[in-house]
Amino acid sequence: HAVRTHRMSRDIEAVCGFIERHLTEPLRIQELSARTGYAEYYFSRKFKRETGLTPAEYIRKKRLEKAAALLLTTGRDIKQIGTDLQFCSQSYFTDCFRKEFGVSPTKYRKEGKA
Description:
Shape: elongated
Helix content: 55-70%
Largest sheet: none
Mean pLDDT: 93
Oligomer: single chain
Strand content: under 5%
Structural class: mainly alpha
Number of helices: 7
Number of strands: 0
Order of helices and strands: HHHHHHH
Distance between the termini: 19 Å
Low-confidence stretches: none
C-alpha cells in the first residue's frame, strides 16, 4: 500500500505531520482523532480514504521508514531502534521490517539498501 499522492484535507495532513514528528512516542487513535475533532470511527474512515492506509498502518509504515533511515545513518543497536520507535519486541520489529522491505534489519543495514 502506497500513500496516495492526491491532496489530503488539511486536518488529515496535519495529523500525518504530527505522526511523523512523534514516531518515538505512543500514538493512539483516540488522541489523533481528538486532534481533528472527529469521532474515532469517522476519523479512521476518513484517514484511510485519504491516505490509503488505516491510521495504525500509516504509523507502522512511517516508523519502519524511520527505522530504515536510522539503520543506514547510525550505528545504533537494532533492538534499541525498534524499542525507540515503539515496537513492543525485537521479533515484532523484525517481522514488520521484513514484510515492509523484504529483508531483516540486519541484512538491510549490511547491504546498505537505499
